[in-house]
Amino acid sequence: MKGSVEVFGQTYEYDFLSGWIKYNRLKKEWSQRALAYGVCSHSHLSYFENGKKTLKKDVIEGLLKKLDIKDIKGLEDIGLIRQKLYNMFSEIESFNYESAKKIYKEIKDMEKLINLSPYNIEYKIYELVYKFFVEEKTFDDLKKDIHSIDKIYFSLNKELKFIYMLISGKIIYKTKDHDEGIKRLKAAKKIKETPLVNYFLGSAYYLKNKPLESIIYMQRALESYEKIGRYINAMWCNNYLGISYLSLKLFKRAEKHFKGAITAAKHFDNKPILVHLYNNLAALYIRKKEFKKSLYWSKKILHNETNPIIPACNYIYACNKLEKIDKCREIFDIYLVDKYKDNICYLFLVFLYYLVFHFEDDIFYQKVTKEILPYYEEKNQVHLSDVIKQHLILYLEKNRKYKEANTYYKEICKSHFYI
């Protein structure tokens, strides 16, 4: 709905008022008929909440009073608050989380006022962005807000619909449901195409094990970010392009993207992305069976503070291939401990332990089929699952269990990931 109206002495957009009324009605678990009774017709309220028809000032005030909102606390400069929200979003997109934290604190100081205004919904949507990226919350942590905003989605203006589909799509594909997440991201892209929505789609398709689709979207994001001079974002695009090409066994292209991003990351002294890039180069050389080169890259970050388990896995895998079993044992002693049990790659480290020391034994089969593989399949970690299946096939063939081996072989043939 276009236009605005004066309510309780202040002017607000119809879109925000309709969404705010619906949001508060649902919080009270009231039906439209219950709220409309004695104020306006049920159909008029329904049209208003769905953004199809405006209501008069006195009707809107009557609905608000019935919701126990008898006035709206003044937000002296909503433009300033919106600018802070936009700035916070921009800092998060640029991976400047410390700066985003400062802006969020400034906004948080005004939260009580915002919560009593129609701009509460706008704040809630941007807060989802902050909580997911900066506080690392999951869908389970955020589902209450997501379900609430889903119910008022059609009352949102175009820009908020875009932001909401973008962030809810990212949250859902990363921590709940790939297909639903991608559906929302595509809905966001229909509203507005930006480098960020292409980046999210590229990363979503990579996690869904569709590297060709990932490359298409990630290449678009890369070109856009380079054009506008957002080189940190461009580095992350190169990282995803590298791992997508790696999935397709296009090693030269993968290596080009990884090494190009490493040059840029060193220039900007960006250590977080260097950890990812070194890990991915180590994985690339494992795929190429150049195990000494893999050791070189994994050793660079073997004891990093961010996530030492991934380089530890790469290092052990290469050492095992080079028959450096004592080196494997040293790393297992450091990282195969309770401290790292919550890391998603910890069970892969356990898998490597049984691969190195018990591959000939039945316990390898039992541990892999009953605990490790089901865990990664449930987590939809296709790449790790496929590596495990490939070694399970070798075990089964060695023990003449060809029918079972063939079952796993058919499963990994559907994937692009082969060592």
What does this molecule look like?
With 419 residues, the chain is mainly α. Among the domains are: 4-66, 434 Repressor (Amino-terminal Domain) (Orthogonal Bundle), CATH 1.10.260; 270-335, Alpha Horseshoe (Serine Threonine Protein Phosphatase 5, Tetratricopeptide repeat); 341-419, no CATH class. The chain has 23 helices and 2 strands. It has helices at residues 14-27, 32-36, 42-49, 57-66, 78-93, 97-108, 111-115, 120-133, 139-151, 158-175, 178-191, 195-207, 211-227, 231-247, 251-267, 271-287, 291-299, 309-321, 325-335, 346-358, 362-378, 382-398, 402-413; strands at 4-7, 10-13. The protein has a two-stranded antiparallel ribbon with strand order 1-2. A hairpin with a 2-residue loop joins strand 1 and strand 2 (10-13). Helix 8 runs antiparallel to helix 9. The longest helix is centred in the middle third of the chain and has 18 residues, at 158-175. The radius of gyration is 26 Å and the shape is elongated. The mean pLDDT is 91.
Instruction: Report the span from N to C terminus.
Output: 55 Å
Q: Characterize the main sheet.
A: 2 strands, antiparallel
Class by alpha and beta content: mainly alpha
Report the strand count. Answer: 2
Q: What's the helix and strand layout?
A:
Layout: E1 4-7, E2 10-13, H1 14-27, H2 32-36, H3 42-49, H4 57-66, H5 78-93, H6 97-108, H7 111-115, H8 120-133, H9 139-151, H10 158-175, H11 178-191, H12 195-207, H13 211-227, H14 231-247, H15 251-267, H16 271-287, H17 291-299, H18 309-321, H19 325-335, H20 346-358, H21 362-378, H22 382-398, H23 402-413
Antiparallel strand pairs: 1-2
Helix pairs in contact: 5-6, 5-8, 8-9, 8-10, 9-10, 10-11, 10-12, 11-12, 12-13, 12-14, 13-14, 14-15, 14-16, 15-16, 16-17, 16-18, 17-18, 18-19, 18-20, 20-21, 21-22, 22-23
